[in-house]
Amino acid sequence: MTRLFNQAARAAATGLLLGCALLPSTGCSQLQDKAAEAAPEASESENAPVAEPAEPVSPPSSNPVPEGEEETAMVVTIEGVEYAARLNGTRTAEDILGMMPLALSLQRFAEHEYYAELPARPSLEGAPVTSHIEAGGIYYWEGWNAFVFNYIDSDIAPYEVVQVGAFDEGLNDYLLSSAPDVVEFSVSEDPA
């Protein structure tokens, strides 16, 4: 299992580096450093125990929004199909909303998420962090400046992310069952 994980990490890192080679103006030097860290070399650590991924779980019909914060409706479009999503009222989510519309290539990672690097770093001011990610949750991870869509509940400790929103079950089902390793999608504020 660990050997498979290390192979996947090396493959993901290679994909990150290839993306940087194709898009050198995106400030990928930090991303290349992180990709190198994500690709562990074969070693005796391959025999270390690794937590098994959690069973797939459908997201709740609505992830709670922190008290006093308002949600902003979004539309996520993949292969011409629109899915409902929403961002919460955190400062981090507001900064991401200010970057929209976005066209991103999300890459599958760690058998529980898809992620893409954002064009700018949002503020983390006052943003609560968590190591427990939920299926249907949209998160921001500062380490790779990543906009993350999770499709399986998981504990990612020692890493911490900021939950910035949630997406509907239809998108979760697509990501869980039939999505390729790289998904081209656009996300924008819902004009309705």
TrEMBL record:
Region feature Disordered, mapped onto this chain: 34-71
Residues in Cyclophilin-like domain copies: 76-175
Residue ranges, compositional bias (Low complexity): 37-55
SUPFAM superfamilies, alphabetized: Cyclophilin-like
Superkingdom of the organism of origin: Bacteria
InterPro entries in the record: Cyclophilin-like, Cyclophilin-like_dom_sf
UniProt-recorded name of the protein: Cyclophilin-like domain-containing protein
UniProt organism field: Gordonibacter massiliensis (ex Traore et al. 2017)
